[in-house]
Automatic annotation (TrEMBL):
Pathway terms, separated by semicolons: Protein modification; protein ubiquitination
GO cellular component: mitochondrial outer membrane
Superkingdom classification of source: Eukaryota
Catalysed reaction equations from the record: S-ubiquitinyl-[E2 ubiquitin-conjugating enzyme]-L-cysteine + [acceptor protein]-L-lysine = [E2 ubiquitin-conjugating enzyme]-L-cysteine + N(6)-ubiquitinyl-[acceptor protein]-L-lysine
UniProt key word Transmembrane helix: yes
Membrane topology: Multi-pass membrane protein
GO molecular function, one term: ligase activity
A Pfam family of this chain: GIDE
InterPro entries tied to this protein: MDM2_MDM4_MUL1, MUL1-like, Znf_RING, Znf_RING/FYVE/PHD
Enzyme class (EC, first level): transferase
Protein name: RING-type E3 ubiquitin transferase
One BP term from GO: positive regulation of developmental process
């Protein structure tokens, strides 16, 4: 705290940072809470022959936010894995990721660093069909639109291989000088395979006898997850708890910083009031002492020696009888000694005692 009672720069920065972090975390928490509440309120429908009838009776032939579970089936062609035989799917994601060690000049440690060099995603149209139906018969199918827009898109890793970097001695020396040590390349293939059970959460519409699952409107989340609905909901709630805990922690840090600053300011204010009271008491005491000294000063001047004006009159001169001098001044009078008042000669001196 500065002498003026204002918070220091460090305290202001700490309070502003914690307040901003709390506001951001609370905003994210509110958004996650709204998503969880919306997910809880989603309409659960069954993928069977009655689904089309349900949508016909719905307003606008649409259920704004529905939960449906089914098995993935390709509409026409499928995607084949580039590395695994007899592995077919409807979504394929190929990734090439670079792994290296980077020297941190602050901590003086080597840290892992990952960077995606290349990534390509291939998709083909696919449906969700009942899991217990006959694949050769006529089934109720739900066409899945824009699967890559899903917040929760479950892809299975079907191939993963790490290619370590080959380095010569001169390369190692150069890497230490540059502060970057390549570890290698990681090649990954992820797929949404045919026959996988999927839980879809989104807008369900009936369009020319075709049932479609598409991203919902009004900012609601779109899910295509391999988890069942209850597990998916628990996963979202656990994430919500994490954001809630972070919000509470940063909120408490903000309150603690604010309390510390206000407490210091309150103590500074009380100390200032105490000093003001002491100054007022000191001024009152000075005024009272001046008044007392002025009163006593009049009396002192009346009894003061007429020669030195300092000591009290302490002797009587005879024969004139004047009381006007102290003993020290009487002794200092030049001979012949004469009364300072009437200039009559002093025959003898009688001491004067004040009681």
């Amino acid at each position: 705290m500065e002498t003026g009672g204002r918070p220091s720069t460090v305290q202001v920065i700490l309070l502003a940072t914690s307040s901003a972090a709390t506001a951001i975390l609370y905003s994210i928490y509110r958004q996650k809470l709204q998503n969880v509440q919306t997910l809880k309120g989603a309409t659960r429908v069954t993928l069977d022959e009655d689904l089309q009838k349900v949508l016909m009776e719905a307003p606008g032939k649409c259920i704004p936010y529905a939960v449906i579970e089914g098995v993935v089936r390709a509409v026409k062609e499928t995607l084949s894995s580039q590395f695994v035989e007899s592995c077919k799917g409807v979504i394929q994601r190929l990734s090439l990721k670079e792994h290296k060690m980077v020297w941190n000049r602050t901590t003086h440690l080597w840290n892992d660093y990952e960077k995606i060099i290349h990534q390509r995603t291939n998709t083909v149209p696919f449906d969700l069909v009942p899991g217990d139906g006959d694949g050769d018969g006529v089934q109720t199918a739900v066409r899945v639109l824009k699967p890559l827009d899903a917040t929760e898109l479950s892809l299975e890793t079907v191939y993963e291989k790490f290619h370590p970097a080959v380095q010569s001695f001169t390369d190692v020396i150069g890497h230490y000088i540059s502060g970057e040590r390549p570890k290698g390349m990681q090649e990954t293939e992820e797929m949404l395979k045919i026959g996988v059970a999927i839980t879809g959460v989104g807008e369900l519409v009936l369009d020319n006898k075709t049932i479609k699952l598409q991203p919902p409107k009004s900012g609601m989340q779109y899910h295509l997850s391999s988890l069942d609905f209850d597990t998916l909901l628990q996963k979202q709630e656990s994430r919500l708890k994490l954001w809630k805990i972070l919000t509470i922690i940063f909120g408490m840090a903000t309150c603690a910083s604010l309390f510390f600053i206000l407490r210091r300011q309150y103590r500074h204010h009380k100390e200032k009031q105490r000093l003001q009271r002491m100054q007022e008491e000191f001024r009152e005491t000075q005024a009272r002492l001046r008044q007392e000294m002025a009163t006593e000063g009049d009396e002192v001047l009346k009894n003061a020696c007429v020669i030195c004006l300092t000591n009290i009159k302490s002797c009587v001169f005879l024969e004139c009888g004047h009381v006007c001098s102290c003993d020290e001044c009487y002794q200092a009078l030049p001979p012949p000694k004469r009364c300072p008042i009437c200039r009559e000669g002093i025959s003898r001196v009688v001491p004067l005692y004040n009681s």
